[in-house]
Amino acid sequence: MCCSTVVGKHCSSIMSQRTERRGIHVDQSDLLCKKGCGYYGNAAWQGLCSKCWREEYQRVRQKQIQDDWALAEKLQREEEAAYASSHGVQTQSTTPPQPGHASLGPFSKFEEKKTNEKTRKVTTVKKFFSPSSRTASKKETQEGKTSPSISRHASFDTDQVSKDFVDFLKNLQKPGREIHKQCRVFLVNMSSKKDLGADELSECVQDFYQNLADRLMTHFKGSSESVEQVMDQVEKYIMTRLYKSVFCPETTDDERKDLATQNRIRALHWVTIQMLCVSMDEEIPEVSENVVKAITDIIEMDSKRVPRDKLACITHCSKHIFSAIRITKNEPASADDFLPALIYIVLKANPPRLQSNIQYITRFCNPSRLMTGEDGYYFTNLCCAAAFIEKLDAQSLNLSPEEFERYMSGQASPRCSSAEGEWPHTGPGAGVAATNPVLAQLNHNLEQLSTISSRQEKVMEAAQSLQADLLSWTESVQREVNDILEKYPLTCTVSAIDANNIDNDNLPPPLTPQVFAG
């Protein structure tokens, strides 16, 4: 059983259309665990909370172990029966060896070999499925002490987290040293389990969280607040070091889901705030500012390494959404207002690796954060929003199938249809005033760029025409000059200055050439 089960089974059951307000309605009781324990459920856990999911997972795993044991014993009995039937005569003629004899005969050697094989099979099965596979042996632990540090090539951030963790544990004195030792041993063990699947790695981390939390609860004498503080630091230290190996591992299809979700959101770029019936007026500057902050927070989630930090981004995003709704309505926002707004923000933000981040939080976050509190509530709604986007259709947006297909194919645009008065869902007074101001500014800029582009094309055409005219004029002038030169050739007569010239006598005295004897 994989924890990355299709999320639509849970979220589709908690989302219904409210025809009187054309909105998305969620029954808040359906966000809770389906077993009625009172904690928040998770779509990736088939609507169960972390506690109930682990119990169910353990039950299925124990059943699988029993089935493997039964299969191994069945195969062993069949092989023994086949061997006994094929060597029955030899077995009857051979005298059973007496106790203490050195030689036990070929059949006994075969039995010994089969017993060893059976032991190996059962041990392998038991080792794979039992909790002991997640506990390092003493030899491995000793080797881990002398082996190079796991974070030898870690980044500066990782080193800083380690330093902060050590500083935090110093305040706990002896328990702090024990916690640091346990974390180090756990990291060494995890470094040898890179071949395990994502669910097995998640189980290892969750077991470590549970065991450490139980010990801390005993040490702090039931002070859950102190335990949470320590567990937050432990999670930050552990997951910062494990992030590269457990986030979007190759053994899962998280990357394929990320690409599918991104393409799906890109294809839904035309969905407007009116279609989702979001109670936010982005023409109000404060509302627009909160929307931008919400989009920034949900995008920033991918840059965080620690599950708790990713949850904090979701929480900040959700609070900005609630603020935007409150400012628009001048009253506190309701849960029915929140989910459509969150869907709208996700569509506008198109967060990178959304599915991988959801799965990472689900697998490796401290389970208490997902089961209760505002973090768990907001995360559950984000899972529902992602599931809604995957299943979004014409009925979800109160459109006809023909309209939905035209918008999806790019043949029509809701904004253009609204401006022409063809879209019946905008209502009176909608039009440009009800359009997203950011999109309106974008469209205005695009129109200006289009005008500038057309003017530039005209200028370029005129410049090319002028260049052609200049070339033609130059050639025309050159031809005219050549024609004149051919018609009136120039002849130049050169004579010596001192040569005899009859005209020299007519010159005035200052200009009369004079001859000097050499």
Automatic annotation (TrEMBL):
One of its GO terms (cellular component) is endocytic vesicle. The keyword Acetylation does not apply. Pfam families: DUF5601, VPS9, zf-A20. Residues 81-154 are annotated as: Disordered. SMART domains: VPS9 (SM00167), ZnF_A20 (SM00259). GO terms for molecular function: DNA binding; guanyl-nucleotide exchange factor activity; small GTPase binding; zinc ion binding. InterPro entries: DUF5601, VPS9, Vps9-like, VPS9_dom_sf, Znf_A20. Residues 255-398 form the VPS9 domain. Keywords: Metal-binding, Zinc, Zinc-finger. Residues 27-61 form the A20-type domain. GO terms for biological process: vesicle-mediated transport. Residues 109-120 have a biased composition (Basic and acidic residues). This is RAB guanine nucleotide exchange factor (GEF) 1. It comes from Astatotilapia calliptera.
